[in-house]
Amino acid sequence: MPDQLTSERYTEEKSALVADFFFGNEEYETEIETWIKGEEVRDALERQAHVLLYRVDGELAGYGCVGEMRRSWPPQDRRADKIDVSVIPALGVLPAFQGKPLGVDYTERYSYQIIQDLIAIAAEYGHKILVLYVHPENAKAIAFYERLGFVDEGPKKDKYRIMSMTFPDEVLGPPAPTS
Q1: How far apart are CA 43 and CA 87, in angstroms?
Q2: Is 75 in contact with 129 (CB distance < 8 Å)?
Q3: In what order do the strands lie in the sheet with 151-155?
Q4: Fewest CB atoms within 10 A around its CB: which of 61, 64, 92, 154?
Q5: What gap in Å lies between CA 98 and CA 131, rounded to an integer?
Q6: Which stretches within the chain are classed as H helix?
C-alpha cells in the first residue's frame, strides 16, 4: 500500500515551503516552478482559486491549483460565446515523486491522486467543462491527461495547449450562482 497523499491549502505565509522547489531544467519544468513562486500564484489566490500543496509522509510532493473563469468555447472559435469553465492553470509533481510509488496500478500513483483531487474540486464549481493548460513539449503530461479523458483542444494564444474534459451531469455540484 503506497504512502498516503495529503493536501493543505497554500497561503502566501507558506511561500517559504516552496522556495526550494525544483522540477527540472526543461522549459516547461522551470515554468511550473516559477508559477508557484511568482505572481501567478498570488493572482490565483486573489481570484479565490484553490491552491493546494500535496505531501507524502510530511514531505512536499507537489502542488496544484483549480479555479474558474469565463472563456470562449470552443476555444479556437474567437466568435464563440463565453462560458464559465473550471480551470486547472498549474499542477506540479516534484521529480522524486513522479511515477511513484513504483509497482502499483497507475491509479495509486501520486500524480493520479493529485489530478483526481483537483478534478473533484473542479466538479464542485458546477461547470460542465474543465480546462487545463499544458506545455506542448511535455509529452508525458499530455499522454497522462489523455489517459484520464482530457481532449486536446489545440493551442492557446501563448505557447500552451488547451486540454478539456466534459463532466457528466451526475458528477457536477450545484450550478454556480449567477450575478
Answers
A1: 14
A2: no
A3: 5-9, 50-56, 59-72, 82-93, 129-134, 161-166, 151-155
A4: 154
A5: 22
A6: 15-18, 27-37, 39-46, 110-124, 139-147
Contacts of residues 142-148 at CB distance under 8 Å and 24 or more positions apart, as own/partner, are 144/111, 144/115, 145/115, 147/106, 148/112, 148/115, 148/119
Does the pTM of the predicted model rise above 0.85? yes
**Residue ranges covered by each domain of the chain:** 5-169
Residue 95 exposure: Cα atoms within 13 Å on the Cβ side:
10
Helix axes 139-147, 110-124, angle to 10 degrees: 60
* Cell numbers describing residue 74: 470552443
| Omega prior to 101 cis, within 30 of 0 | yes
Cell of 20: 526550494
Q: Name the amino acid, one letter, at 69.
A: M
Q: What is the pLDDT of residues 109-167, one digit of tens each?
A: 999 999 999 999 999 999 999 999 998 989 999 999 999 999 999 887 778 899 999 99
Torsion of CA 133, 17, 11, 166, to 10 degrees: 20
For domain 5-169, give the fold: Aminopeptidase (3.40.630)
